[in-house]
Amino acid sequence: MTRLDAVVVGAGFSGLYMMHLLRQRGLTAQGFEAGKDVGGTWYWNRYPGARCDSESLSYSYSFLPELDQAWKWPERYAEQPEILKYIEHVATTLDLRSAFQFETRVTAATFNEADDTWTVETGSGDQVTARYLIMATGCLSKPNMPDIPGIDSFRGDAFHTGLWPHGGVDFSGQRVAVIGTGSTGIQSIPHIANQASQLFVFQRTANHCVPARNGPMDPVVERTYKSRYSHMREKARHSMAGDVVPESYVTIMKLSPQERRKEFNRVWSQGGFYTQYPFTDLMTDIRANDLVADYSREHIRNKIRNPRTAELLCAKDHPFGTKRLCADTGYFESYNEEHVHLVDLNTTPIRAITPTGVEVSDGHYEVDAIVYATGFNAMTGALTAVDIRGSSGEILRDAWTGGPVNYLGLSVAGFPNLFTVTGPGSPSVLTNMVSSIEQHVEWIDRCVASLEERGATRIEATPEAQATWVQYVNDTADATLYPQANSWYIGANIPGKARVFMPYVDGLKDYRDRCDAVADDGYAGFTVA
Ligand code: NA7
Prior knowledge:
The structure is a single chain. The chain is of the alpha/beta class and 529 residues long. The protein folds into two domains: 2-142 and 377-528, FAD/NAD(P)-binding domain (3-Layer(bba) Sandwich); 179-372, no CATH class. It has helices at 13-24, 41-44, 65-70, 80-93, 183-195, 219-227, 229-237, 257-270, 286-303, 307-313, 331-334, 381-384, 396-399, 433-454, 463-478, 507-520; strands at residues 2-9, 29-32, 100-101, 106-112, 117-122, 127-135, 157-160, 175-179, 198-203, 209-211, 326-328, 340-344, 350-354, 357-360, 363-366, 369-372, 387-389, 418-420, 459-461, 526-528. The strands form five sheets. Strands 1, 2, 3, 4, 5, 6, 17 and 18 form an eight-stranded mixed sheet that branches. A five-stranded parallel sheet has the order 7-16-8-9-12, with helices on one face. It is globular and about 70 Å long. The site of ligand NA7 has 23 residues, from helix 5.
């Protein structure tokens, strides 16, 4: 059996960077990736309209300053093919593909008490042994197919947005159903509407949206950013959002109605998550939150001709921003088209998928294709899908039945030498993902280097440090409005999943400082042997 220093699972932004750093340290590492090539999220999510909601200039690696200058991002928010092109370019430049075995899914990993190693098994029957197991498997990589009766009986074409065919799909002249109105539904619906002869959107919950205000890259913005790239990167690394955005300078409840209106107009005209960042009380004071939600609903009502449809599209069951905000480009306007129909699943729930369409409580919609924009088993799904057996033989999936528990979002008690990149309990999805990935990967790299220097063979979070961390993550989330929504942040989108708020809400800067303090303190909260 091959013996290595490390196994890295996943060849997205995190796995590639991790591999690069391990190699630079002279360690032997093998990567496994289920896809045919690099890209992770951006390899799989090829649905029409797939686009990042962090700005292009900041959604890239910070450790390649020459590439920062050379790379041309065509739009303010990059489309999936552009991001994939960037990742492929980095993989080629750093010769990272040679470290990965593609089309290979890791199915199991077992910790060996005798020699502090992991034996990793793949679906193709490979077995390797390594000191460190690094799961760079992404937060939104395990697609969630809904459990609807008859789902396999449909005779037309069915797609999940997170597993989109590589050659694309032509819906021209077809009757299409889209189930789900989260980010991917909202991004893809205008594009599908442009092709389909009839489009039926099945909505269970209306989501809060912000205008994306995407467009061609402004050359002045690009030039200015590029002239200060290292400064911008440094600012992003030490910011709450992992991005250079105006943070927490206005308290909504302290503004007069006129000032409020002016401020809301200003952030709305900037678009994207700028609508969320400037406010100190948006995510903690329901009165402030209601004011923003009202303002946002006003825009929807102004955009949509049919008042009943407009009302259905206004999010009302959760505070603004407590579910991942969706960035809208032409989404609402789609419903002004004659051939686009909104089906409200609250009044007419789906009963079944039939061979020819979707049956709801008051009728049947005949369609040629169904698009499941039904999201992911977020944050834990890709980790619990693998049989990861720790030092006592317990499987991670079982250890997490009551919700994920870990230390720093990076390490799980009872699972020595295992690292999870952007795991639950870390800021991840509440920040610019690449910034958070870099912080994690660099922390793991430093940790591994320190173990190697000390001649240590084993690092493991203590149960006490883990319990304190989990409590802290829960307490800080409970101080916000986030837990009020039935979101994927809290596991509510997966039937039977424990409801625990998973991301760390205090931001990247605070989190980075805590992680660095742990490392500076000789890995406090860990047992090193
Ligand atoms: P999301 O945001 O989880 O959205 C999934 C949507 O699918 C949401 O509207 C769900 O309604 C709906 N859904 C899920 N299951 C069902 C069933 N059984 N019936 C009807 N409707 C259903 O996933 P996305 O892929 O859009 O986005 C995920 C993230 O990727 C996104 O936040 C970005 O960070 C990128 P619900 O709201 O649960 O009532």
